[in-house]
Amino acid sequence: MADQGNDDKQGAAKGLPSSEPPGYFEGESMTRRTAFTVGVQAIGGIAGAAIVLPAIGFAAAPLFEQEDEPWQAVGPTSDFTPDTYRSVVITIVFGIGETGKSTAYVRQGNPNLTGLPSGYHKESPDEYIAISTRCAHVGCPVRFVQASGNFICPCHGGVYGFLGERIGGPPVRPLDRFQTRVTNGQVEVGPRYSVTNHFDPVRARDPGEFTGGIWNYLYPPRPSVPPPP
Amino acid sequence: MPKVPRPDPLSRPESPGQRTNGANGASANGAGPADVAKEAGGDALGWLDERTGGTSFLTGMLYRKVPKGTNWFYTLGSATLFAFTFQAITGVFLAMYYTPSPTQAYGSITHLTNDVWMGEFVRGMHKWGASVMIICIFLHMGRTFFFGAYKYPRELNWVIGVVLLILTLVMGLTGYLLPFDQRSYWATIVANNITGTGPIVGPYLADFLRAGPEIGATTLSRFYAIHMLLVPGLIIALIGAHLYLVVKLGTTAPPWMKAERPKSLRREEVG
Asked: Which residue of B185, B194, B211 is in closest CB contact with A208?
């Protein structure tokens, strides 16, 4: 008690009690206490990062892994005509049963089509057109209606023309397509790609995302889908 | 009969410096076993209280002063808390039967609903309780807004409440997929694609939610983990902060209650 009293008197003499920790000397840049505080916090931060960063990477890994989209045979070339679509069942995601399946509409290329939208290439009878049923609005399944020659979405009234071009309703771009090829007389359907309103192929986008021009940058391509043809 | 001195396991241990006289516990004074039993409850509480300080904490929380005019509208927050507790309990028991796999989820839900005893009831409680919780939150929020209870110094509690509202909506979104029927599948497709329409980050966020470009093998388990581990943990932590601030800052009087001024400050009523 007596010592403390002396300390108080010394402090009172200066007006304020001394704020210097024990062992302080003039010109010291970092006290031992500060050094230990910073050191412990740094070690704690490293330990926390060692737990959190791998966990975040673990959760975000699928963003950077390209999904395997193998080519699938959907039928002999004789099944498909140039004038109308034929629906085929394809597997989008393997290993999850019915949930991974989807439908696509396939037809033979038709060189006689007229009134093509600007930018649309002239089709040849050697190629096959595979159109995704995933509506470009929010992803409901569209249906090809034979009587009108249109693709119609049941959810919000999106309407697409014979080429999959948007002609009405809320969709923001034409229907997606699948790459196609013919192997041993079998039509094969490959990875999905999206198209702009001028039918330039781009890397597959999710429904609801515009394509073309500045939109290709506002909705950037994802590394999880393969590049367009 | 001479009394044998023996230790009394139920009596409080005396702190040093507190020994006052020889009267040391009831049994030492020749009280019967009924008296010992009668005091045991109090002694057990005392034992707990001495080690936790829980009594003063609970007294401070439960017997805090509330303003005049406090009415039934002030129970909406407790109603929301009750709804959340209800969801947590029913959810734990639903998790005992649910399988978050794309090929088995729907089957486990139909099994749970149709075969398990009371399963339909528990699942129904969880399903309808979700709507009850959302309704309670909005009523509670409306009460806070219209009573002006979000104003200084309670702004932070309003912000925490809004985060809790968003987390509850996330619970609704992620829980919707779990039955894995046509409705939940397509609703999740739509919700994911709406997420994707956010510029720049949207496509990546959608990929993150789905664990890939399509609803795949791990989307369901990802939603399940978010629904039953991640978001409930956040909600519980934030409810703790929310309640702490309510107790610390107190509640507001309804806006129609005027503060009573001291008599000396009151003007004469004009007759």
From this structure: B194
Task: Nearest by CB to A138, from B193, B207, B208: name it.
Answer: B193
Instruction: Tell me, rounded to whole angstroms, the distance of Cα A161 from its chain centroid.
Output: 26
Domains in chain B, CATH or no CATH each: 77-249 (1.20.810.10)
Which of B190, B200, B217 has its CB closest to that of A93?
B217
Tens of pLDDT, residues A83-140: 999 999 999 988 888 889 999 999 999 998 888 888 888 899 999 999 999 999 999 9
Task: Check CB contact under 8 Å for B207 and A207.
Answer: no
Domains of chain A: 2-63 (no CATH), 72-218 (2.102.10.10)
Q: What is the pLDDT of residues B97-128, one digit of tens each?
A: 999 999 999 999 999 999 999 999 999 999 99
Which residues from chain A sit within 8 angstroms of residue B179, using beta carbons? none
Provide the whole-model pTM.
Answer: 0.81
Q: Is A209's CB within 8 Å of B190's CB?
A: no
B209: exposed, middle or buried (C-beta count within 10 Å: 0-12, 13-18, 19+)? buried
Q: Are strands A150-152 and A166-168 parallel, antiparallel or unpaired?
A: unpaired
